[in-house]
Write a structure and sequence with these properties.
Layout lengths: L9 E8 L5 E7 L2 E3 L2 E4 L5 H13 L3 E7 L9 E7 L11 E4 L11 H19 L11 H14 L5 E10 L4 E7 L4 E5 L7 H11 L7 E5 L4 E5 L12 H17 L4 H7 L2 E3 L1 H21 L10 H19 L6 E4 L7 E3 L4 E3 L5 E4 L2 H14 L4 H13 L7 H21 L7 H4 L2 H33 L1
Helix pairs in contact: 5-10, 7-8, 8-11, 9-10, 9-11, 11-13
Length: 468
């Protein structure tokens, strides 16, 4: 699950309720009140930055509930609804408590803030009553969560020490790290469109516990689970080749272990990236891409013509058919496999965040890993070859080295198609025609064209070498 971020610095007006929402925490100024304001730098997790800023500036431990929508005529003003979890710390930090029983619009410098506060309180009540869906949109949810976590870790001999980090926040999503007297624990809950991550995570924890963080408790009513923090770090540009090889080996081990459970994994919600399914998606996908190319208004990069798309479609279908002949089995995969979803130490590697889990050709996931490795370790071809060899050797009990090499050769093309076609966005004209989505899909389609051209060029060079 990716935490919400924004690409530009923005100001957020904070509607900060006292515990349980009986009072509002505001800043007094010239006999009137104003809301606290937090600046969110670009590419920051909003909830995490909000909680850190509120504590730094006003010494309030608080949690984020949700962002409050503004009217279309006031799109520049952003409100964030938060709840303090400090029962008595306010006046000493410059904040003042205002009781809702004496709440008046005229007390505020800006009447829009007073109206936003009223709307925020109304929404909190709707979440509490259940008329709006979302357990994390109501006041008091964090106190309930903390008590639940305390109960779950007690049997393991762990005790909360009071420190926590809220990473992600919305009425239906939550990601919080709690510190204990032992290892930290992570609570994660998911909502639409990532509900599938809940049953997938529980299935992986049951069937493949060596490859994922240890889940110690779950709550069906929240679609949430509690897991022990995995020891280690994400692989980075400073990681040695042994670390990257361990990641490649462990990925292959997990995938091989999953071979006998792929149908069950599909039933739990994994996306279907099997070659037979991908083959059926080619024609409708490229018809949608043809429409997006025709809608492009910019001259550069040039849109692909219908003839180019037809050729790409035809050769992609042929490539899928050739790979389907091999005996490489379907296995667990990850359409968003990146270093942020990997935790590795000297003797263990685990994988996180399975919202984009799939079942299909295993080499596609390895291709995503290679793509990120190349960005991090540019021009490090010797290390890349070691990673490829390490991963490929794990599959030699299934197929011949020749078949493995052939599948690795076409994976860059097929992996891009699987990444694009297995998601639902392109199927919905309203969603795929949004400017950002349209640019993304056009870019992915051009990437397929480049990968196909490179594949054809390599095959031509190989044929020429054989003839000579």
């Amino acid at each position: 699950m990716h935490a919400p971020q924004q690409s530009e610095t923005s100001l957020r007006r904070v509607i900060l309720f006292a515990p349980q929402g009986e009072e509002l925490l505001v800043l007094p100024e010239h006999g009137r009140f104003r809301l606290p304001v937090v600046s969110i730098p670009p590419h920051q997790r909003i909830a995490e930055h909000l909680t850190a800023s509120v504590y730094r500036d006003w010494s309030q431990h608080a949690v984020s509930l949700f962002g409050l929508e503004t009217s279309s005529t006031d799109s520049e003003t952003h409100y964030e609804v938060m709840e303090s979890i400090d029962a008595h710390r306010s006046d000493a930090t410059g904040l003042r408590r205002v009781s809702f029983s004496s709440f008046r619009e005229s007390q505020f410098e800006q009447s829009a803030d007073a109206m936003a506060v009223a709307r925020a309180m109304a929404k909190c009540k709707e979440y509490a009553a259940g008329s709006k869906q979302g357990p994390f949109g109501r006041l008091g949810w964090f106190a309930e969560l903390t008590e639940w976590v305390r109960d779950q870790i007690c049997s393991a001999g762990f005790v909360l020490n009071g420190r926590f980090r809220q990473i992600n926040a919305s009425p239906t999503f939550s990601l919080v790290r709690f510190e204990t007297n032992g290892p930290a624990v992570w609570f994660k809950a998911v909502g639409e469109p990532n509900l599938r991550e809940y049953p997938i995570t529980l299935a992986l924890a049951e069937y493949f516990p060596a490859f994922v963080p240890r889940v110690i408790a779950m709550r069906d009513d929240w679609n949430g689970w509690l897991a022990i923090e995995a020891e280690g770090a994400h692989p980075t540009e400073s990681s040695d080749i042994g670390t990257w090889m361990r990641v490649a080996t462990t990925l292959a081990e997990l995938q091989i272990a999953s071979v006998g459970r792929t149908l069950h994994l599909l039933e739990t919600g994994c996306r279907d990236a099997r070659l037979c399914t991908l083959s059926g998606l080619i024609e409708p996908f490229f018809e949608a891409m043809a429409e997006l190319m025709e809608r492009q208004t910019k001259e550069s990069p040039p849109p692909l013509s219908r003839n180019q798309l037809f050729d790409l479609e035809s050769q992609l279908q042929d490539t899928l058919a050739e790979v389907a002949i091999s005996e490489i089995p379907n296995a667990i995969g990850h359409l968003d496999f990146n270093p942020g979803n990997i935790v590795v130490n000297h003797d263990r590697c685990v994988f996180l965040d399975w919202a984009e889990a799939c079942v299909g050709h295993p080499f596609f996931t390895f291709q995503y890993l290679l793509e990120h490795f190349r960005r991090i370790r540019q021009e490090d071809h010797s290390w890349e070859q070691l990673m490829v060899s390490t991963y490929a050797n794990s599959w030699q009990s299934f197929v011949s080295p020749r078949e493995i090499s052939k599948a690795l050769g076409v994976s860059p093309l097929l992996a891009v198609f699987a990444y694009a076609a297995c998601r639902d966005t392109w199927r919905d004209p309203m969603r795929r025609n949004r400017p950002d989505a349209a640019r993304h899909f056009r870019s992915l389609t051009r990437r397929m064209k480049r990968e196909l051209d490179l594949l054809v060029a390599n095959e031509t060079q190989g044929s020429a070498a054989c003839l000579s």
